Amino acid sequence: MGLNKLQLSATLNGDRAGFTGWSLHGQVFRADGGSLSARLGDIQTADNIETAPVTRLFEAWLQKSLGTGDRTLALRAGLLDYNADFDSLDTASLFLNSSHGIGADVARSGRNGPSIFPVSAFGVRAAFSPSATWTFRLAVFDGVPGDPADPRRFVTVRLRPGDGALISSQVDYHLSDKARIALGAWQYSRPLPQVAQPTTSALDHGIYAAIEGPLPGQDKISGWLRIGYAAGNVQPIRSYFGAGVVVKAPLPRRPDDRLGFALARASVSADNAGLPLVGAETSLEATYQFKVSDGLALQPESQYIFRPSGRSDARGGFAFGLRLIFTAGYPRKAPATQSSDPTVPPDGPQPPDQSSDKPS
Question: How many CB atoms lie within 10 A of CB 15?
């Protein structure tokens, strides 16, 4: 089976037109393919571009940046990607399992998930950097992204009172130019029926913490740890743990290749009564990314899923694949080995000693 995603994004810098500090960003994607998770029966989604065939306006926001030097404030409003600011780890972005892009505890929250791929929501976000070491983020999103009754619409902005809101915050402490600690918390404003007692309701909420960066004494080996907890009485995941390592240039004369190993473990809520549960689904992943050129990368990949969806009667399964990544950018290049959107410039000061030639 095959999965594919075509994405087009652009950011207009208002400084060049006399609108100092303003920027306008948009992103449209087209996704097609079958469902790998339907075959595996997993809850974490083994491939992070899996979705029903759809063409969608995913991001469309306006931003105003204030301040100079190490003290900045960026205010953003529009269709926002939650995962662009919250619960995102650069080191883990090499991997295909969705839980390495955003923890399963957050991804499975709410009535239609948070504002992440494949459907986004209207939101407002503030990012404040009092120095090059600290960054504080706070955002409020529509509590129900898109239209669950019509999941293939090009764009949906409903803002119905009954949807409530998702409120999220995160603080980052940069240990160095390549290492940081992140702490985050989130909560929905509208209660959800409890799984074990549908006649009662409670708020979906959670917290998470992560650390990433080079391993001590290692320039070419980076790693991360991430842990999160959620309200398992109103959603299928009660906790999540993720970890992994990435080795840069594992082969001689291949300075831009990367080899990675990762683990993602999602603990299923005990309130999902009636299911033969073992307690957790665990994914082990190994991948290697070959840089063919600046705009082309090949990435063979393998995963083994233990106890899909946490069911004790479910057999584990292997998944093997090959991801082809092709990118092009103007006026700057868009490296195929860079997972983040290179058209979006940083909205605050860079961590200490960070190179100034990062694509933007």
Answer: 11
Q: How far is CA 296 from the centre of its chain?
A: 22
Nearest alpha carbon to residue 107 among 228, 22, 16: 228
SS3 of 114-138: the string is CCECCECEEEEEEEEECCCCEEEEE
- The Cα 155–Cα 70 span in angstroms is 36
* Residues 128, 348: Cα–Cα separation, whole Å: 7
Retrieve residue 166's tokens: 């998702």
CA atoms within 13 A on the CB side of 75: 4
- CA dist 283 and 263 (Å) reads 6
* CA–CA gap between residue 137 and residue 183 (Å, rounded): 11
Please say if the pLDDT value at position 60 is more than 60: yes
As beta bridge partners, residue 210 has 182, 226
HSE-up (13 A, CA, CB side) for residue 258: 21
Question: How many angstroms separate the CA atoms of 248 and 259, rounded?
Answer: 7
Specify the DSSP element, H or E, that contains 177. none
349 three-class SS: coil
CA distance linking residue 146 with residue 112, whole number of Å:
8
Q: Is 13 helix (H, G, I), strand (E, B) or coil?
A: strand
Residues in the chain: 360
Residues sharing a CB contact under 8 Å with residue 274, sequence separation 6 or more, in sequence order: none
pLDDT in tens, 292-316: 999 999 999 999 999 998 888 888 9
Burial classification of residue 276, based on how many CB atoms lie within 10 Å of its CB (0-12 exposed, 13-18 middle, 19 or more buried): exposed
Closest-CA residue to 126 (of 90, 168, 75, 186): 75
Dist. CA 21–CA 212, nearest whole Å: 30
Hey, how many other C-beta atoms are within 10 angstroms of the C-beta on 16? 7
Residue 237 bridge partners (DSSP): 268
132-148: burial string, b at 16+ Cβ within 10 Å, e else: bbbbebbbbbbbbbbee
Q: How far is residue 194's CA from residue 202's CA, in Å, rounded to a whole number?
A: 6
Query: Which single residue is written with the structure tokens 């909560």?
Result: 187
The string of pLDDT tens digits covering residues 191-226 is 998 877 888 899 999 999 999 999 998 889 999 999
